[in-house]
Amino acid sequence: MATRVEMLIETLKAHSEKKFTARDLAKEFVLRYPKALAKAYSLCSTMDETHGYKNEIAFYSAIKAAFIKHSTVDKNALMKKEIQH
């Protein structure tokens, strides 16, 4: 599994023509890292060495879920807000 830094470098190389801000890189990390962790854990979850990582993976997955929840915009709510004003 790639390290966090390697994942960010891969993202930069894939879109080398685009300028990335620290916020863009953090967003990419938050969205990709939990999925990669869950895949790796599912492959080796029966090993004794991996039992301590279950809570960490759940933590990163919860951060990802909260990030997605708060970053999506409900178009109906925006329309209602514009109508009221």
Q: What does this entry look like structurally?
A:
By secondary structure, the protein is an all-alpha fold. The chain has helices spanning 4-14, 22-44, 54-71, 75-84. Helix 1 (4-14) crosses helix 2 (22-44) and helix 2 packs across helix 3 (54-71). It starts with a helix and ends with a helix. 2% of the residues are buried.
What coarse outline follows from CA principal-axis ratios?
flat
End-to-end separation in angstroms reads 50 Å
Name the structural class: mainly alpha
> What order do the helices and strands follow?
HHHH
Number of helices: 4
Strand composition percent: under 5%
Give the % helix. Answer: over 70%
| Uncertain parts | none
| Number of beta strands | 0
Which key terms come to mind for this protein?
single chain, 85 residues, mainly alpha, flat
SSE blueprint and pairings:
Layout: H1 4-14, H2 22-44, H3 54-71, H4 75-84
Helix pairs in contact: 1-2, 2-3
Q: How is this structure best summarized?
A:
It contains four helices and no strands.
